[in-house]
Amino acid sequence: GTVLSVPTQLDSSTGIATGQIDETTLKQALDQATPDEQGNKTIEIQMTQIKDAKTYETVLPANALTQGQATIKINTGIGTITIPGNMLSEQAPEAKTASISIGLADKTELSQELKQKIGDRPVIQLRLKIDGKPSTWSNENAPVTISIPYTPTEEELKDPEHITVWYIDSQGNIIEIPTARYNPETSTVTFSTTHFSKYAIVYVKTNFEDLDQAPWAKKQIQVLASKGILKGRTQTKYEPQTAITRAEYLFSLVRALGVTASLEDNFKDIPKDAYYYKEIGIAKKLGITKGIGNNQFAPDANITRQDMMVLTERALNMLNILKTQGSASDLAKYKDTHLISEYAAASIATLVKEGLIVGSEGKLNPLNNTTRAEAAVFIYRIYNLI
Question: CA–CA separation, 356 vs 353, rounded Å?
Fold first, then answer.
């Protein structure tokens, strides 16, 4: 990529540090940038860090975010924003400038309960201006990645997987961000989002009173529940030994993968008020699932182990995550391969070769229903691939 150092000026009355890049400079940087293996270019913008700055605002030519020519990475004293070139493809086609800002949010606007839960951890606010005027932004097809420097407490470092991020909406409600995770190598918390708002770093350790029924899955269940990737059957019970439904599993898989897409329709048996409506719709649009026929998904049916594996392998292939492709020889060590349906054999073989499925006592148990504990362990494995 190409790195541009941008002079930054601070307005001491507002605490906003602003830097601007003109179209000529950006075009020169784009011409000089070397594409990666996929042909994508990246331009990195380095904002001058200013001690008293509470917000950093970068003003760009709007066409840099509408024509999809390059990914733009903006480094500031508060955090880093990585923006796809199609961020504004669905709005402002005639705009001249787009301003992206990242700042420290005003915690006094939060409820007392929320302030207590967040504590001293950072709360940031992302904003957009089009031609100098505040504008909302949401684009399910162009997620933006945010990285915030963060030093965990001694207690958090004992179990850093529970460091995560909450989106705080305009009513003060919290929504978990499943893509959020702490990177100990860079001492940052990174997450992706498809809309701008307030985001808080938090430490969450979700527990259920029945996890001793499956101690081998306790850690995985707690981590995934803390990030909003999976849900309990109630506020206090997870029911690890019961079968997981098709909707429950696909909801968790889509959230663990962090994939997004704008929805046009859904299966006709998915209620619009179901908590999994969006995730099932994303899976349908992206081709992760084709349903059971007649535009139906059967959300409340239990999912077999082989169907769980087929859906997952299809999703991982779509994201180009799998490095190899399995064959019949990879299944030869299992005693029950004759039970695997023809449509599932190639997917299961690939997951076995990748080490994502190991079986139990020499069996794959393809026709068994998947328990909620088994699903959590498998999805946790997938989550750590991303």
Answer: 8
Residue keyed to tokens 């989550």: 383
Half-sphere exposure of 77 (CA within 13 A, CB side): 19
**180 near 164, Cβ under 8 Å?**
yes
Q: At CA 252, angle to CA 250 and CA 258, rounded to 5?
A: 100
The rounded distance, in Å, linking the Cα atoms of 311 and 250 is 8
pTM: 0.93
Closest CA to 352 of 371, 373, 337, 338: 337
- Nearest CA to 61 out of 105, 25, 36 is that of 25
pLDDT in tens, 14-34: 999 999 999 999 999 999 999
Residue 219's φ and ψ, nearest 5 degrees, are -60, -45
Please give the structure tokens belonging to residue 72.
């733009």
pLDDT tens per residue across span 92-148 = 778 999 999 999 999 999 999 999 999 999 999 999 999 999 999 999 999 999 999
Residue 342 CB-density burial (10 A; 0-12 exposed, 13-18 middle, 19+ buried): exposed
3-state SS, residue 202: strand
What is the rounded distance in angstroms from the CA atom of residue 18 to the CA atom of residue 8? 5
Residue 3 falls in which region: left (phi positive, over 0), alpha (psi -120 to 50) or beta: beta
